[in-house]
Amino acid sequence: MRASPGGGATADGNLPLEPDRFVGRSAELTELARALDDSRLVTVTGPGGVGKSRLAARAAALSAPPDGVWRVELAPVRDPELVDFTVVETLGLTDHTTRLPREALLAHLAERQLLLVLDGFEHLVEVCASLVAELLRRVPGLRVLAVGRRPLELAGERVVALAPLGEDEAVELFADRAAQQGVVLEDDPDVRELCQRLDGIPLAVELAAGRLRALSPTELLARFDDRFQLLAGGRRDALPRHQTLRTAIGWSHELCTPEERLLWARLSVFAGRFDLEAAEYVCGGDGLPSDDVLDVLSELLAQSVVVREESATGVRYRMLDTIRAYGADWLEATGDAARLRRRHRDWYLGLATWCELDWFSPRQREVAARVEAELPNLRGALEYCLTEPDETHLGQYLAGSLWFYWAGCGRLSEGRHWLEQAVQLDAENTANDQSRLKALWVLGYVAILQGDTVPALAALQECREEAAEAANPTAVAYAEHRTGCLALVTDDMPRAETLLRSALDRYQQIGELNSNVLMGQVELAMTRAFQGDLADAVKLCEDVRRVCEDHGERWTRAYALYVLAYVAWSEGELPHARDLLADCLGSAHGFRDLLGSVLAVELLALVTVAEGDAAEAALLQGAAGGMWPSVGLPLFGSAYYNAPHELCEAMARERLGDERYEECVREGARLGREAAVARALGQSRSLDAVPVPRGPVRHGAVRVDMRKPAASPTRKGGETAG
């Protein structure tokens, strides 16, 4: 089992590296390992702070199933409808279709053998139980390790109840965490007494050890004993363990300065991880100057109230859910919770606005990574906007501003979830038309990308009509653009060209220039190429390429390269077409843009067969065929987009024979997405190229004319090349 240095996902899982030494628990590890061997569903239960997550992560890391261990953090998730999305996101799945997330998850897991760790599910027990039951019933290679304060209560569930540490292990843990602060402890009876008072609960022990910079073990014991007696009424032997933890947290809270207690409470508004800038904005002011937040946060770090983590986007912080909940109670008690939630909402609205603007820049990859890291908090902001009175327009704005993430980074299903909620909640109110109109055209765009043409057309028509009534030229342009995009993938090239040209003219009149505008130009180029005007297509895409390179834009540029590669193949320039497609595929895959990736692989297969390697071409077609179910209707059900695929298949079958061709296709279909992309990018052959005729081509019984496609197959709709 491997994990990236920042705790991100690798090919075989996403378990984070352990931040410090794992102490004790050898018997429990053995028991849990045995349970995982004997049962497909194991649930580790126990009170908060007892070390469930740490033990589960250690046991999971030692299990090493063929397809890895994937840990899903559910503590930050509040909406039950987001549980499936969260699992899909954690597994790194990209699904452009209208399938529900659970259906996409089942399809992905069907042939895999992996361990899924669901951590912190107790507040979502019903939906998690439903999910786990269905996954285990339909995915024979799956095992689930659930971590929470109660069982899922499913048939076949093996429950491992985790008790607190024994005295010796608790003392060892206390000494280890003390040593991290440069404090060396001997076998001190006060330490043993303190660990007894703490009932051996690891979180309570670590909180106490975090005080050693200021207090000796003897002083800690004296202070804690006073607090303990007060809360427990003098009956230490009868104190419930959950009250012990709350006592320990409360004691640690009382030892904090007023500024530390204030920051602790305010930090509870974050869902999951946060960075310093967010903490300074959201939590600063009104008794805690923003400039002081770093110093106060550092003290909370030293006391183990806050945890520091390295990530791909830099240093981030988090609170354990038990500690966060304690802070949230105090925040409610102060009467300041509503204001803090608004500040949290404001920060993430601002972040989304900045990221949308910065998407059209050399920082696209950083923007994608930032939004990925902030997704739990962005969800929290969306939930707030869509549940608070008079905030819906801000939810529409936020969901619409994230169009680049939904469309460009493989998050179509979740984007549609938020966009549909946003436009339905405020259907009769057009007072904030700018936000609503943006949400409508983005919804239409997302639905097109999912191949769901009827809802797409409805959203775009509504946007066009309301934009005209509101005299909003920007929304009119976007609605017209996306309607042209819809015509492109449904094979109506004349209408597509008319609408796209009109939209591009409108963009120019209002001074709009961004990735969307350039994508419209790429889509226009595709209509020209399909209608046989290759020179015009090249001119349009070279212009897009130049503008993208001037601005450091990579996402739209990848689609321009796809069209240029299509033209290069059409003209027999095979090495040039391969170079363009390799560049295109690398960029699209880097953004998790599955549509751009599979289009590039399809065209690479055609280039490969033209170069003389029919077996490799068939394998690539099989790999693409394995990717299309997560995209939508293969090649959009478009006769124009399908013609190169048909030609490739005809040429490969002719050279290999039907049996060998099908064998190669099956081999390619067995490749995962990562392996398929690596295979497509790793081909370097010095084979003699086989020229591709530029006009109609006959191979056996198949005649393919790139400019005159056969009748389009029956379908529900398709997707845009953007």
What does this molecule look like?
This protein has 32 helices and 9 strands. It has 722 residues and is mostly helical. Among the domains are: 136 residues, Rossmann fold (3-Layer(aba) Sandwich), CATH 3.40.50.300; 89 residues, no CATH class; 148 residues. The protein is globular. It starts with 25 loop residues before the first helix and ends in an 18-residue tail after the last strand.
Structural class: mainly alpha
Helix amount: 55-70%
Distance between the termini: 36 Å
What is the tally of beta strands?
A: 9
Quaternary status: single chain
Please, how many helices?
Answer: 32
- Mean pLDDT rating: 85
What's this entry about, in short?
With 722 residues, this protein is mainly α. It has 32 helices and 9 strands. It is globular and about 85 Å long.
Quickly list its features.
about 725 residues; mainly alpha; Rossmann fold; five-stranded parallel β-sheet; two-stranded antiparallel ribbon; 32 helices; 9 strands; about 5% strand; disordered C terminus
Architecture blueprint of SSEs:
Blueprint: H1 26-38, E1 41-45, H2 52-63, E2 69-73, H3 83-90, H4 101-109, E3 114-119, H5 125-138, E4 142-147, E5 157-161, H6 167-180, H7 189-197, H8 202-209, H9 217-232, H10 241-255, H11 258-267, H12 276-283, H13 293-302, E6 307-311, E7 314-318, H14 321-334, H15 337-359, H16 364-387, H17 392-401, H18 403-408, H19 412-425, H20 433-449, H21 453-469, H22 473-489, H23 493-510, H24 515-530, H25 534-551, H26 555-570, H27 574-590, H28 594-611, H29 614-627, H30 639-656, H31 658-669, H32 673-681, E8 697-699, E9 702-704
Parallel strand pairs: 1-4, 1-5, 2-3, 3-4
Antiparallel strand pairs: 6-7, 8-9
